[in-house]
Specification:
With about 525 residues, this protein is of the alpha/beta class. The protein is built from 22 helices and 15 strands. Among the domains are: about 190 residues, Glucose-6-phosphate isomerase like protein, domain 1 (Rossmann fold, 3-Layer(aba) Sandwich), CATH 3.40.50.10490; about 40 residues. About 45% of the residues lie in helices and about 10% in strands. The structure holds 6-O-phosphono-beta-D-fructofuranose. Pfam families: PGI (PF00342).
Length: about 525
C-alpha cells in the first residue's frame, strides 16, 4: 500500500494544483459537517488518489476499528485498555460497556459532582479562608494541562468565573511567577494528574501547598484533585469530596472532556462546558456514521497520510488565525505526536513507512512575520492547515476580523499560485535592467504549488471548539489505524523520566556521575562548577 501511494505521489509531484482547480473542485474536495467546512481542494489530491486512500481505509479495517473504539473494546493493546474518551461526552448517557459493565452511570455521576463543585466555587459558597475563590491554579502537565489551558484561553468570551491559571513546568520560575500576585486565602489549587506520580506535577503541588500553608492553617482544604489514583490523592491529604476520578480508559491527552476539564468548567460555567462536550459529541456521531468521503476526520487524516507518508513532507503546520487559539498548536503537538510518533506497528514489527509528522505552528498573522518566509520560498514543502472563524467577538473591531480572514485566505492562495519569473520581473518595474534585473527577480519568485487545507467555522463557541478538538482526535485515530500502530500508549516518554530521576541526585552531589557517558558527566560537572 505504501509503495503504491509513494509511486502515485512521485507521478503527480510537479502537477500544478491550479490545473486541478475547476469550478466543481471546491465542492468535491471539501466536507461540510457539524458547523465546520473543511476544504482540501488546494492540495494535489485528485479523485483517483483519493479513491486509493479510501481503499486503504478498507484494507486497514478502519470501520471495525472505529466500532471497536466506540464499543469499549481494548484497542490500546500494549496497555490492555479500552479507549473511551468519547464516553465522557456521551451526554444522553446511553450505555457504553467495557466487558459488559456500563461505564455511563459513573461518568454522569462524576460530571454531576464536577458541576456541583464548579457552581459552588463560582457562586462563592465554596470559600477559601479569606472568602470566595478569586483564582484557580491548575497544576498538571501534558494532557493534564494542555487541554484545559488551551480551551480556557480559546473560550475567553465565556469566562465569567474566577481567574484560571495553569502551571506545568517543573522550573520553579513557572509556579513562582503564577503564585506571586495571588492571595493564598482566596485561591483554589487543582492538582491534575491521572497517575498522581508525575514528578513535575507533584513537585509543583508541594510547592503550592507550602505557599498556601504560610497563610492558611489547613491548606489541603483549598486543594482539589483530578486523578485516577484515589489512594495517592488521599495520601496527599485531599478530601474525597474534592477528588474527581476517572478510569484508565481515558488517555491523558484525551482527558479534558472529564475531570481534567474542571478548571475550564469553573472558568466558563457548567452550561457552556456541556456545550463544549456536545460539540464533540456531534463530531463523534458524524465520525461514527459517515462514509469515508463524507467524513471530515477521515478526509483530514487521508490528506495527512497523503502529505506525510505519500509525498514525504515531514512536518505539518497548524495555523489557527484567532489569537485565542494560540495554544492549539501545542495541544495538537501532544495529541498527534504522542499518539502517532511510534516506530513499531501493533504487532511489534518496525514500521515500513514514516510514522506521524512533526506538528508545529503559531497563530496566523504572527507566523506570517516569522516563519512563513520558509513556507513560501524555502526548499522544503510544509503542508499548512489554516483555520479561521467567520465572526469575531469584539464589537467595533469587525474590520480587524475581516483583515484576519483576508490574511488567512490570502496565504493559502499565495502558496498555491506562487509568482513566476515573469511576474517577478514585472513587479520590479524599471528599477533594474539586464543581469541585475534577472538576479533581483529570482529572489522574488515564489514556486507556488504548495499544499494547504482550510478549516472554517462560524464563531469560536464552546460547541465549535469541542467539534474541532474531536475532529483532530479522530483524525489521529484514523492515521494510527492506517499506520497499524497503537495511538494510545506513550512508552517513548519513559526513558527520559527514568534518567532524570537518576540525574537529580548526581546534580545535587549526593551521587557521583559514575556510569554516565563522558558528555553527560561533563555537562553535570560544568553545571555543578557553575553553582547548580
Ligand atoms: O508525557 C507523558 C504523560 O504520561 C502524558 O501522556 C500525560 O498527559 C502526562 O504525562 C501527565 O500525566 P499525569 O496526568 O499522570 O500526571
Amino acid at each position: 500500500m505504501w509503495d503504491k501511494l509513494k509511486a502515485r505521489a512521485a507521478e503527480v509531484e510537479n502537477r500544478p494544483i491550479l490545473d486541478l482547480m475547476d469550478q466543481d473542485r471546491a465542492h468535491e474536495f471539501s466536507v461540510e459537517a457539524c458547523g465546520l467546512l473543511f476544504d482540501y481542494s488546494k492540495t494535489n489530491l485528485d479523485a483517483e488518489t483519493r479513491d486509493m486512500l479510501i481503499a486503504f481505509c478498507d484494507e486497514a479495517g478502519l470501520r471495525d476499528r472505529r466500532e471497536a473504539m466506540f464499543e469499549g473494546r481494548r484497542i490500546n493493546e500494549t496497555e490492555g485498555r479500552a479507549v473511551l474518551h468519547t464516553a465522557l461526552r456521551n451526554l444522553d448517557g446511553g450505555p457504553v460497556r467495557i466487558d459488559e459493565r456500563d461505564v455511563m452511570p459513573k461518568v454522569m455521576g462524576t460530571l454531576a459532582r464536577m458541576e456541583g463543585f464548579a457552581r459552588s466555587v463560582r457562586e462563592g459558597t465554596f470559600k477559601g479562608r479569606g472568602g470566595p475563590i478569586t483564582d484557580v491554579v491548575n497544576i498538571g502537565i501534558g494532557g493534564s494541562d494542555l487541554g484545559p489551558a488551551m480551551a480556557t484561553q480559546a473560550l475567553a468570551p465565556w469566562h465569567d468565573g474566577p481567574r484560571c491559571h495553569f502551571v506545568s513546568n517543573v522550573d520553579g520560575a513557572h509556579i513562582a511567577d503564577i503564585l506571586a500576585p495571588l492571595d493564598p486565602e482566596t485561591t483554589l489549587v487543582i492538582v491534575a494528574s491521572k497517575t498522581f506520580t508525575t514528578v513535575e506535577t507533584m513537585t509543583n503541588a508541594e510547592t503550592a501547598r507550602a505557599w498556601m500553608a504560610e497563610k492558611v492553617r489547613d491548606p489541603a482544604a483549598q486543594f482539589a484533585a483530578l486523578s485516577s489514583a484515589q489512594d495517592r490523592t488521599s495520601a496527599f491529604g485531599i478530601s474525597e469530596t474534592r477528588v474527581f476520578g476517572f478510569e484508565d480508559w481515558v488517555g491523558g491527552r484525551y482527558s479534558m472532556w472529564g475531570p481534567i476539564g474542571l478548571s475550564l468548567m469553573i472558568a466558563i460555567g457548567p452550561r457552556a462546558f456541556r456545550d463544549f462536550l456536545s460539540g464533540a459529541e456531534t463530531m463523534d456521531g458524524h465520525f461514527r456514521s459517515s462514509d469515508p468521503i463524507e467524513s471530515m476526520p477521515v478526509m483530514l487524516a487521508l490528506v495527512g497520510i497523503w502529505h506525510n507518508q505519500g509525498c514525504g513532507y515531514a512536518t505539518r503546520a497548524v495555523l489557527p488565525y484567532e489569537q485565542r487559539l494560540a495554544r492549539l498548536p501545542a495541544y495538537l503537538q501532544q495529541l498527534e505526536m504522542e499518539s502517532n510518533g511510534k516506530r513499531v506497528s501493533m504487532d511489534g514489527e518496525v514500521l515500513p513507512v514514516d510514522s506521524g509528522p512533526v506538528v508545529w505552528g503559531e497563530p496566523g498573522t504572527n507566523g506570517q512575520h516569522a516563519f512563513y518566509q520558509l513556507i513560501h520560498q524555502g526548499t522544503r514543502i510544509v503542508p499548512c492547515e489554516f483555520m479561521v472563524g467567520a465572526q469575531g467577538f469584539e464589537e467595533g473591531l469587525e474590520h480587524q476580523h475581516r483583515l484576519l480572514m483576508a490574511n488567512c485566505l490570502a496565504q493559502s492562495e499565495a502558496l498555491m499560485r506562487g509568482r513566476d519569473l515573469d511576474a517577478a520581473r514585472a513587479s520590479l518595474g524599471d528599477r533594474f535592467t539586464g543581469a541585475e534585473l534577472e538576479r533581483q527577480a529570482r529572489h522574488r519568485v515564489f514556486p507556488g504549488n504548495r499544499p494547504s487545507t482550510t478549516l472554517l467555522y462560524e464563531r469560536l463557541t464552546p460547541a465549535v471548539l469541542g467539534s474541532i478538538v474531536a475532529l483532530y482526535e479522530h483524525r489521529v485515530f484514523v492515521e494510527g489505524v492506517l499506520l497499524g500502530i497503537n495511538s494510545f500508549d506513550q512508552w517513548g516518554v519513559e526513558l527520559g523520566k527514568e534518567l532524570a530521576n537518576d540525574l537529580a541526585p548526581v546534580l545535587s552531589g549526593e551521587k557521583d556521575s559514575a556510569g554516565k557517558d563522558a558528555s553527560t558527566a561533563r555537562l553535570v560537572d560544568w553545571l555543578r562548577a557553575s553553582g547548580a
